[in-house]
Design goal:
Length: about 170
């Protein structure tokens, strides 16, 4: 997207999938988006496993610039329920990009945080509303809630109040 500024925050490889966390700012209207996008490692115009870090950075910038625009059209984390925000954060912070809440964990969350069955029912509605069936499994017998990698790619994490742009490319 022209007239945008990008800043890569982080990227990581997970079984040939390259997850890229970046911030993009539209310089015309100053809107910002903090997103995670996923690409195939083979989409890079360099060999991810043998390239120098600067080569990888340049290739990643090319990918995000070629696939930009969608960042401003996805749902914002600030609009999610507290429970879905917590699951989203858990998936984002997990090295395995997963969040598992079994029934005992759920009971602890009810006691410690005050979640209710109403919160869980609202989560069910959000799974439908945001089309998250591939990323959130509810009441599967073993787990009350399972969040999977890819959930972090579904939202613009707009909760940060200020983003610093150190690199212009």
């Amino acid at each position: 997207m022209p007239n945008c500024e990008y800043r890569i925050l982080n990227y990581w490889d997970n079984n040939e999938d390259l997850y890229v966390n970046y911030v993009v700012e539209n310089l015309k209207n100053y809107s910002k988006a903090n997103v995670v996008n996923v690409f195939s490692v083979s989409d890079l115009d360099c060999d991810y496993y043998n390239a120098l870090p600067d080569e990888i950075d340049d290739a990643v910038y090319k990918l995000i610039k070629n696939h930009s625009g969608w960042e401003f059209n996805i749902n914002k984390v600030s609009k999610l329920s507290p429970l879905l925000k917590d699951i989203y954060d858990c998936v984002c912070e997990s090295e395995a990009s997963m969040c598992h809440i079994d029934y005992d964990d759920w009971n602890e969350l009810v006691k410690e945080i005050g979640y209710t069955e109403n919160d869980f029912n609202n989560l069910k509605d959000e799974v439908e509303r945001y089309n998250l069936k591939d990323f959130l499994v509810l009441d599967d017998g073993e787990y009350k809630i399972c969040g999977y990698g890819g959930l972090q790619c579904c939202f613009n994490d707009d909760r940060a109040s200020k983003w610093v742009f150190a690199n212009e490319r």
